[in-house]
Structures are given as structure tokens and as C-alpha cells.
Amino acid sequence: VQSVVRVVFHDRRLQYSEQQQLEGWRWSRPGDRILDIDIPLSVGILEPQIHPTLLNTVEFLWDPSRRTSVFVQFTLRKNGGEKGVPFRIQIDTFGAGGKGDPPEHLHSASCLVKVFKPKGADRKQKTDREKVEKQPAPEREKFQPAYESTVLAEVG
Prior knowledge:
This is TFCP2 factor. It comes from Falcunculus frontatus (Eastern shriketit). This protein has 156 residues and is an alpha+beta fold. It folds into two domains: 2-115, no CATH class; 116-146, no CATH class. Helix content is 22%, strand content 31%. The protein has four helices and eight strands, in the order βααββββββααβ. It has helices spanning 12-15, 18-28, 120-134, 137-140, and strands at residues 2-9, 35-37, 45-49, 57-62, 72-74, 86-95, 104-114, 153-154. The strands form two sheets. A six-stranded antiparallel sheet has the order 3-4-1-6-7-8. A two-stranded antiparallel sheet has the order 2-5. The longest helix has 15 residues, at 120-134.
């Protein structure tokens, strides 16, 4: 199967200006990508493809019968994004279409990502954790538990 990973704006208002934002990025950071695959850390991915014009998209093939994990990384630049602007990582998975048919859409999943300045994320996680710990038990159950790896929610 083939999976396409994209970083997009989470906020609907910003989605309308996404193409202009991407053009601004391309102009101000020539040669830089927004998203890339960390190949040495990834397992079971085949034929990773990074399109030079699609700065926020990566693709790869994988075998669903084998253990597979993909590590994606955001730009390595010091100021990689706008502080606090919510992004969404979305993965769309397709099966092979029939002869001459387009690929069959199998599944889509996403998660929310927020960009922070270096060291800001650790501080933000700590203050968020402290806020949750101060909540009464019934309120704490409303929060999603912490995971070692990113858990994606199915897109309806």
C-alpha cells in the first residue's frame, strides 16, 4: 500500500490561505522542506518519495503484513514554524487500483501538532501536565493519556 503524509493547517481559517503560506515559505526559505522522512529511524518503508515542489508532503510504500513505522521530521531550521500555530499531520493510505483505475482510498488518520520554539515544548508539556494533575479525577479522565509515540485519530 502507499501512504501520503502531509502537514496542513488545523485551523479552517488558515486552510483557505494554505497555498499562499506555502509559497511564502518557499520564497523565504529556498531549498528547505517543511516535512521530511527520517529514513534511518523508520522501519519497513519502501520507496520513500520526496517531491521537490510539495514541501509539506512525503510518500512511501509499505507492506501491511510487516511491522512498519515512519519517523517524520519538521524543518531543521532554528525557527521552524509559527509559535503556537496548530498544524495537523495527516496520513492518507491507498491500495493499488485496478488497471487504469486510480488508487483505492483505504484510510485517513491525523493528529494535532503545535510548534514551539526550542526548549519551549518541554516547558509547555510540564505546565500542561501540572494543570491536568491539579484537576479532580472526573475532569482528568477527559484528557487523552500520554503515549511514547504519536497516536493518530481516524479522519471521518
